[in-house]
Write a structure and sequence with these properties.
Elements (H helix, E strand, L loop, with lengths): L5 H15 L10 H15 L3 H15 L15
Length: 78
């Protein structure tokens, strides 16, 4: 199984931000740790691609690897 590296993840992230807009801070916090967790699960628990993807997604959300800047609205409307 081929795992993405940190550069792969950051490239996809930058492309998504450029295509969809959004004000996301260049988040690079803990992306490597999240990738390592998925690889470890594959190597030590024989997890399949779905299990590895779930592990990666879980760790990304828990680690807040990409920090989103909150937009302030003067009118209070969201």
């Amino acid at each position: 199984m081929r795992f993405p590296d940190k550069l792969d993840v950051l490239t996809v992230h930058a492309r998504l931000i450029s295509e969809t807009g959004g004000g996301c801070h260049q988040g690079r916090r803990l992306v490597g740790v999240c990738l390592a967790a998925a690889e470890n699960r594959h190597h030590y628990e024989a997890a399949d691609v779905v299990g590895c993807a779930a592990t990666y997604a879980y760790h990304l959300t828990q680690a807040h690897a990409f920090i989103v800047r909150q937009q302030t609205h003067s009118s209070g409307d969201y």
